[in-house]
Amino acid sequence: MQLDFTEKLILPNISNLHQLSVYEENGGYQAIRKAFTMQPDAVTNEVKQSNLRGRGGACFPTGLKWTFMPKSTTADKQTEKPKYLCCNADESEPGTFKDRQIIEFNPHLLIEGILCAAYAMGIKSTYIYIRGEYYKWYKILQNAVEEAYAKNYIGEKIFGTEFSTDIVVHRGAGAYICGEESALMNSVEGKRGYPRVKPPFPAAFGLWGCPTTINNVETLCNVPHIINRGWEWFSKIGSPKHPGTILLGVSGHVNKPGVYEFPTGILLSDLIYEVCGGIPGNKKIKAVIPGGSSTMWIRGEEIDGVRMDAESLKTVGTSIGTGGVIVMDEDTDVIKVLSRIAHFYHHESCGQCTPCREGTGWMEKILHNFESSEATLEDIDLLLDVANNIEGNTICALGDAAAWPVQSVIKKFRGEFERRVRKSPKVSSSIKPPHLVFAHATP
Amino acid sequence: MLSQENLQQFERLQKFYPTKKALTLPVLWMIQEQEGWISVEAMMYVSSLLEIPVGDVYGVVTFYTMYNQQQRGKYHLQICTNISCQLRGADKLVEHACKTLNVQTEENTKDGRFTISKVECLGSCGTAPMMQMNNDFVENLSVEQLDILLNELK
Ligand SMILES: Cc1cc2nc3c(=O)[nH]c(=O)nc-3n(C[C@H](O)[C@H](O)[C@H](O)COP(=O)(O)O)c2cc1C
Ligand code: SF4
Ligand code: FES
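Structure tokens for the assembled complex are given below, as produced in the milestone run.
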């Protein structure tokens, strides 16, 4: 069974692994040495064939993403634009706390992953974008980067090769939207974190208009292992279409919340009951959010047989997102939780698109009405209507992320909404079109 | 306005960014660490240091929630109230802290020692409920521990 797989690739059980010397004693910085003996394209190819998929939420194939970057040729060295890598350590999706763990316990694995990516794509500088709240982890990362610079593992002509590359740690300042790749780039450029309209995509027009790749922390941490042991070995771990180990951050109503590393495809029920020790008070599960606040909810009865990988979660209408599993017991007020989520997206909307800016606020308001039993039956459809009108009509995916939980909770827990309405003293729709309100306003 | 040490840091950082404007966030952080908040004078200073319009600096300061536009209490308790923390009793913590210190959220206590804020997920959901106190994370927080902490800091 999956649980028998004990090797941890990303978070092995080794003390003081955050120190460069300990990391090296345990085989660290061998992958980059090996990469230097290969052609850059061969490094990309290895990642591509491994089938590694991004761990930042969208599950995009990593090697394929790298091939979108323009290739360097010796002829245009002089006129060529610089290329950049952004490592996404923004980690602001509610329910997600895995990248923080990597930064704390294994920062050199991340640095080595970045070096491999930089070599593969001919990257000049990497910006690690870390959320502002992670002050302690910013210091840890900064320390690790300085250690690596001191040994010339980063900087000019690293490992005595002709290859030079820089790594800069860039602190965010409190904005969920900066995790979105184009907003992240604007933030590095010193601007407000507004998402950009795509296309052009970052590989063509990224940081300062130059080719740029954006990868999540955990994604990059898989790369050294792929280089060391080869794509075939990697592609056989876990689920074939979504291979590797994955960090799963479990929170909410479980006895042992935390970050766990397992091959993809571990049963959700095993994760909750075996690994996390079940639900406090042996209560039943009412709902599970499998991959952070923006993924669709599933009901407790649905978790049997569901595996933690992209394909299996699709069969129950949801996705793996960031692997941030949130568990809710039978006594949870799902409307209260959804209302809190709606507040989050309204608060974090950057305000550029009308459907997102207005719609998220509207959803929050309607949900508040449900919470206080002031909503009507029509409000259920109104809420769904607002969500449907946000989805797919915005510049970035924050709009979708706000709509999905609402759509799925209405679908899976419509009864809860109806029960709230029955308690409601009002009968007519509580939100009238503006002209009707004004028509009666004259004294 | 930047201290000698920070000015040197600013010089060092310049070589890692192709534009001066890119240093907006790092420089604002330096100022906030020195002064505790970002005043209008500070924004004007950043504008001239980076040779960008002051409106751009203002736009950045107001966009990001962590830049303080007013002085905060000596201890800024930012309690996470997002889902995982909510499921484990965060609302009770906020209520208790406000009652004990006799303030509303975002309001400084009269002695200037405390400010309480409700914040979004801080990436510590596995050790919920939790709060950020200045730069530190206080995890697995209970009402009792909060009381002990507030007493120690009073
Ligand atoms: C609103 C929003 C917030 C996001 N936040 C994060 C984040 O905090 N960390 C992250 O790695 N990706 C985040 N993403 C996804 C990134 O845009 C991007 O897809 C990802 O960093 C790519 O890395 P990967 O291919 O390695 O997964 C977010 C996306 C959206 C739309
Ligand atoms: S969808 Fe929302 S967050 Fe994204 S660009 Fe539009 S307004 Fe901003
Ligand atoms: S929900 Fe509170 S830290 Fe994530």
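The longest helix of chain A spans residues 398-423. Residues 432-443 of chain A have pLDDT under 50 and may be disordered. Further analysis is deferred to the final report.
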